[in-house]
Structures are given as C-alpha cells and as structure tokens.
Write a structure and sequence with these properties.
This protein is globular. Strands 1-2-3-4-5-7-6 form a seven-stranded mixed sheet, sandwiched between helices. Helix 1 (16-29) packs across helix 2 (41-54). The two termini are 32 Å apart. The protein has helices at residues 16-29, 41-54, 112-126, 141-149; strands at 6-9, 58-67, 73-86, 96-103, 131-137, 153-164, 167-177. The chain is built from four helices and seven strands, in the order E-H-H-E-E-E-H-E-H-E-E. It has one domain (3-131): Gcn5-related N-acetyltransferase (GNAT) (Aminopeptidase).
C-alpha cells in the first residue's frame, strides 16, 4: 500500500460515520479510550462542533484508491484522525491541550500516526500551545512507545483511576513541551 494514496484534511460531517466506526471499535475492544459504550452519530456531531467552535486542530486521514471499472473513479475512506482538545476549563490551562489519535486497525504500522501527529504538532506551534498531554493506559505499551518516540516524556502514573473490562487501569501522563 503506497503512502501516496493517503492525504490529510480537516474533518467534515460526511466523515462522522467512519470516525464513529473507528472509535467504537476502540471502545469495545481496547483500553485506548475509557469510554464504556459505543457512540452514535449525534455524539460525533457534537464532538466535531465542539472542536470547530473551540478551534482546536483536527485532521482526518483519507485513503483514496482506484475504484469502478478501468480505474476511472476514486473511492475515499477515512482511516483515522488526530485532534487536540481542551485539557481543563480554567483559563490558566488555555495553552495546554490533550491529544487524541486513532487509526483504523487495518492501517496501523504504515507511519500514518507519525505523519498526522507531525501535522497537528506544527499547527499547535502556530497557535501558540505550550504543552500537549497524552493520557495512556499503562497496559498499552505500544501506545506509550509511540508518544515517547515523538518526544513525549512520562510525567507520572495515576494508579487505578479507570475501570474497563472489569479491571482497574493505571494512566500514564505523557507531556510534550511545544
């Protein structure tokens, strides 16, 4: 699969079904998110509206491939996204953001996470963010290594702060100074 078949752009309403599918897979099969119940399109619409209203950077990964007969048309799939969001509501935290990054399970290991992260990081710098936080379930060692590879440092571990799949989970707080 060629990386030339992938592009990045801000999300639009038509992307929400694919984004919900990707997120719901993570909700029901992993501890990448502590949500316990799948989300619907209304939830994702509210999420997108909040991101846009608050003007947080958000990009989706678009996979285009030839389709139809003789390759005359393009088919587009949304295979992931990355966004920054509010860390805390108090004004003192306005230069701090929390990052989320989700890639469809069939498209991991291609370098897409690194590519989209670098684009979001560039936008964070332009917008004057001081620090980005990633909250990682400590059992997700691949996730922790991803953030460390991109310069995040573990600043602490919160013990037994979330329960999912009938077990208590620790959260690592990872920080990148922008």
């Amino acid at each position: 699969m060629s990386l030339n078949s992938f592009s990045f752009r801000p999300p639009v309403t038509e992307d929400l079904p694919a984004l919900a599918d990707i997120f719901n897979h993570e909700i029901t099969t992993s501890t990448r998110t502590f949500r316990a119940h799948p989300v619907d399109l209304a939830n994702r619409q509210a999420w997108l509206e909040d991101i846009q209203k608050e003007q947080y950077p958000c990009l989706v990964i678009v996979h285009s491939r030839e389709g139809g007969t003789n390759g005359e048309s393009q088919l587009f799939n949304i295979v992931g996204w990355c966004n920054l969001s509010r860390y805390r509501t108090q004004e003192a935290y306005n230069a701090t953001a929390e990052i989320s990054l989700y890639i469809h399970q069939n498209f991991r290991g291609l370098g897409l996470g690194s590519q989209i992260f670098e684009l979001i990081l560039a936008e964070a710098r332009i917008r004057g963010y001081r620090t980005i936080l990633a909250m990682v379930a400590m059992e997700n060692t691949l996730n922790a290594r991803f953030w460390e590879k991109h310069g995040f440092q573990q600043r602490g571990i919160l013990r037994d702060v979330g329960m999912k799949f009938d077990r208590w989970l620790d959260i690592g707080v990872y920080q990148l100074m922008v």
